[in-house]
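Posting for a labmate who doesn't have an account.
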Amino acid sequence: MSKTNSQRYWKRYILMRLENNINKIKSIMGVLNEQPEPDHTKQITNFLNKTFVPKNEEVCGVVVVNPKDRKVLMGQPPYEKYKVTIYFIGGPKTKYWPKTQAVASRRLDIMDELHSSVMNFFNIYVDIYEKNITNCDSFENVTSRIDNT
């Protein structure tokens, strides 16, 4: 009887070791087979600035940030989605002030259309944010600061 218990123990031990080795081999093979993720930041930016921005009069432009370039807080997992910031004309002393429900609804529709366009064209999910600026000249200043960093 003790032989069968001993045999079972060694069988389980060998199978467990074999399974651990197989998992290690699979993880090594996964690392070796990984392809670097292509950077679509410029393509998304050009696509949106040429097709999306000109048809919306209250949109000055968009800024796209690669997930690898997004700032991660301590303990937070890394981002997996591109960040798209839409710069709307808005705020005091603009014709889109005050931000009524109609203005907010129109902006949500614009953001939804932008998300759908990127998803359909690039098959990439994005996080979308909005910012208000008083005029499109301010957007030129924002993009020049981003390019310099």
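Reply:
Got it, the structure tokens are right above this. The longest strand covers residues 82-89.
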